[in-house]
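Protein details
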Amino acid sequence: MKSIFKLTILLSFIFTGCEKTLDLTPKDQISDASFWKNSDQFKLAANDFYYSLQEAPNYTDRNSDIAFGPGPNAVSNGSYLATANSDVWDNAYRGIRGTNYLLEKAEESELGEAIDRWVGEASFFRAYFYWNLVKNFGGVPLITKSLDVTSEELYSPRSSQQDIIDFILSELDKAVSVLPKQSELSEAEVGRVTRGAALALKARAALYQGTWMKYHAGANASSYFAASIEAAGELISSEEYELYRQDGDASYKYLFILRGDDSKEVILARRYFLDRITHNWTRELWFNAMVPTKNLADLYLATDGLPIENSPLFKGYEELGSEFKNRDPRMAMTFIVPGSQIFADGGVWATTYPGFTGTNATRTGYMLRKFLDETIDATQFQGSYDFKEFRYGEILLILAEALYEQDGQIADDDLNRTVNLLRQRAGMPALTNALVTGNGLNMLTELRRERTVELAFEGFRREDLRRWGVAETVMPQAIRGVKFVGTEYEERYPNLEIGQDIRVDGNGFIVVEAASSRRFLSKHYLNPLPLQQIQLSKGTLEQNPGW
């Protein structure tokens, strides 16, 4: 059972009949002077930070090449412009002010070790807020104190991206030293930040900076790869987490919905609770708010562990569902295979055929199965499964990538303790150096493939393409869907007119956005700073190059 933090504050007012002085203490709120007196009050203040974790639905991957929505996406196709304001910027600095304030009050207090844990949570979230800024904008102003309208720091210039990452890593080291392990949480505390969450964010941020430096500046990024390896290794060796396997061959599917909540794979999640705080992600995905693309479909290996262009097991595209045969089982747990069943309205299982007309009409001809819950509540607008912000599967992928990037190679023993655990859960053959060299493959390509299919639709793809320095090659390519011409799709939809109702390429594949409508320029590696923030900075904030 999921638990929820208690956010109740009991207010007691003591009146004395003989007191004649005027009491100006507000009666509808707790004053700052009367707060920050004990550990419980610091805990209450820390509770507010949890509302900043990513919410479902998370449609970030629509900004990349592996997902599409109801229509063109300006970020994905490169047509977006700098905006006056940014929720990412505003929410992050609002959160930073809150964490700064708690940390200042902690320094002023005499509570000492009694509040170490809540100081650790504040340090974690301060790092988390800066992480959301740096991965979007690069360097930003580094503010480490709570400001008011007269503070000179309001006009601070941008610190470098490296300085922000270094600050994030140092904050996480502080958090690691005082936060509890996952196993030390009481039942009522499940969902709070732990040492594992701090290590997970450190591993993620250090790998990001290492690859950014390597592929953008050509700099020696060894120290960041080492930090990522150390953090991921410490998390793994803690034995606090493990891959979700409780549903056998279907474990990958069930991890992301209600059955997977609070499993040992989950390191930190945005929490939802039936009849308290819910989401409608399942129904939104029924109606194709986000759908897969052929760009993603082609990445899934055949069951012999080879890419489809290399494997004799690949069945082609001519029949409905033929491209799903003999493929990595995660494909059928991420895409809706034509003719398979999904849990639908009224709690019935409905046979579903993604297509181009009616309820199941999609722009690509693919539909998303990942994140479709199988509860009646979810079909009635009351989804309550959590959004897994940090999970153990990502840590295994981080460690494998960091090891390879550090040394230019990775041993089979390291593959077996990282990506091959994920492949084993999915029922796929192991990735080995012999498999790669014997079939003319590239190990780095295969590690990146594994990351993409395992983490698909969890919000990593655009960030990955940018840090790898390949977005200028990948993002301008056409967004395509299923093969239509010469296949069973053409037979099922004889009234669709090519060129008017749908577009196809020279090989008969659906084109939902042509390459001519897409671009990714060098400036797109970083988002533009909000224009209003630049205007308010009195000339101290410089815009990102090209914007």
Confidence is low (pLDDT under 50) at residues 4-20.
